[in-house]
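Whiteboard transcription, Tuesday session. T.W. wrote the C-alpha cells on the left side:
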C-alpha cells in the first residue's frame, strides 16, 4: 500500500465516519494484511508454535463471541436478558474485536435489518447504482466502509445511549481495542519470558486474529446475501451458508436470522452448527443469561410455508 493510496482511503473514510471509527478502520484494514505476510515469512523460517495457535484461536473465540453473542444477538436484537456484569463483559469482549464502537456497530446493523437489500441498506450487494455481482460483493464485503452512510445511523440506538455503562464502553473503544492487542502480547511475553514471544503473541493473537475476524464478519454481509439456501421467507436476499456458519461462529445461518431476528439461536436445525448458540446454552445453564428467545416450532414451519420473497437480482455476470 503506497502513501498515496493510504491518503486516498483516509480521505474517503474521513468524509463520513467519526474519528474513532476512521482510526480503527485504518488500523484494522491496513495493518493486518502486512502482519499476515510477516507471519507467513516467520512461520516459514521458525515454525508456527502451539502458543501461537492457542493465542490465535483463544483470542478469536473471546472477541468473536463478544461480537456474535454480545454486539449482535444481545445489543442489536435483545435475544436474551443478562445481569449487568455479563452485559459489560459481552460489550468489553466485542469492543476488543476492533470492528468499531458499540453504538456505531449496532446502529449500522439495525439499519441493515430495517432496510435489508433495499436502497438504504448500508452494506447490501444489491446497492443502488451499478453492478454485476463482483462489484456488489466488494461493496457488501468492504467497500461500504468507504462509502458515505446512507442514513444518520445513530438514531437506531437510543435505548443503548441511555445506559451509562454502554456509553463508557462506546467512548473507550480505542482503549478496549488496544487491550485486545495487549492481552496476547503480555501472555506471549510472560509464557516465553522473551520479547520475541511478546511480538509473536501480538502478531497471531492480535493482528492476524483481527484480520480473520474482520473477514468472517464481512462475509456474513457479502457471501450470506449472495450464495446459499433460503429455506425461510425473510423479504430480502439473505442466505444460509454452512462454511460461513462455522467460521463466523454460527452467524452464517443468515437466512434463518433474517427470518427470526430476535432468536438467540441462528442454526435452527440440529445439523446447522451454531457455536454461539452452544455458548449461550452453556451460559443459560450457569444462570448467566435468561429469557432466551427462540421461535416456536409452529412459527418456524409457518415461515417455511409463506411465499418466497422475490427481488430483481442484479446481473451476476460482472
Ligand atoms: Zn443480513
Ligand atoms: Zn442481525
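and on the right, the sequence the group agreed on:
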Amino acid at each position: 500500500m503506497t502513501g498515496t493510496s493510504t491518503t486516498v482511503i483516509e480521505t474517503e473514510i474521513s468524509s463520513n465516519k467519526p474519528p474513532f471509527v476512521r482510526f480503527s478502520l485504518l488500523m484494522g484494514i491496513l495493518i493486518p494484511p502486512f502482519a499476515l505476510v510477516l507471519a507467513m515469512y516467520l512461520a516459514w523460517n521458525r515454525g508456527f508454535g502451539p502458543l501461537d495457535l492457542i493465542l490465535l484461536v483463544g483470542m478469536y473465540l473471546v472477541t468473536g463471541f463478544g461480537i456474535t453473542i454480545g454486539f449482535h444477538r444481545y445489543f442489536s436484537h435483545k435475544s436474551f436478558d443478562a445481569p449487568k456484569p455479563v452485559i459489560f463483559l459481552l460489550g468489553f469482549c466485542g469492543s476488543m474485536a476492533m470492528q468499531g464502537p458499540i453504538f456505531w456497530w449496532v446502529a449500522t446493523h439495525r439499519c441493515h435489518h430495517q432496510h435489508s437489500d433495499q436502497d438504504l441498506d448500508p452494506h447490501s450487494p444489491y446497492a443502488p447504482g451499478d453492478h454485476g455481482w463482483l462489484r456488489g460483493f466488494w461493496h457488501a464485503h468492504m467497500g461500504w466502509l468507504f462509502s458515505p452512510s446512507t442514513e444518520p445511523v445513530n438514531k437506531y440506538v437510543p435505548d443503548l445511549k441511555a445506559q451509562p455503562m454502554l456509553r463508557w464502553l462506546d467512548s473507550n473503544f480505542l482503549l478496549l481495542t488496544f487491550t485486545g492487542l495487549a492481552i496476547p502480547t503480555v501472555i506471549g511475553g510472560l509464557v516465553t519470558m522473551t520479547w520475541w514471544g511478546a511480538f509473536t503473541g501480538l502478531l497471531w493473537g492480535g493482528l492476524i486474529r483481527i484480520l480473520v475476524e474482520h473477514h468472517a464478519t464481512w462475509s456474513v454481509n457479502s457471501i450470506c446475501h449472495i450464495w446459499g439456501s433460503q429455506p425461510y421467507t425473510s423479504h430480502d436476499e439473505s442466505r444460509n451458508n454452512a462454511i460461513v456458519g462455522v467460521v463466523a461462529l454460527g452467524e452464517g445461518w443468515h437466512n434463518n436470522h433474517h427470518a427470526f431476528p430476535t432468536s438467540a439461536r441462528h442454526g435452527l436445525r440440529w445439523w446447522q452448527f451454531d457455536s454461539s448458540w452452544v455458548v449461550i446454552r452453556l451460559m443459560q445453564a450457569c444462570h448467566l443469561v435468561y429469557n432466551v428467545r427462540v421461535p416456536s416450532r409452529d412459527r418456524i414451519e409457518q415461515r417455511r410455508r409463506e411465499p418466497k420473497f422475490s427481488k430483481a437480482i442484479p446481473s451476476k455476470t460482472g
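Someone added at the bottom: The chain has 14 helices and no strands.
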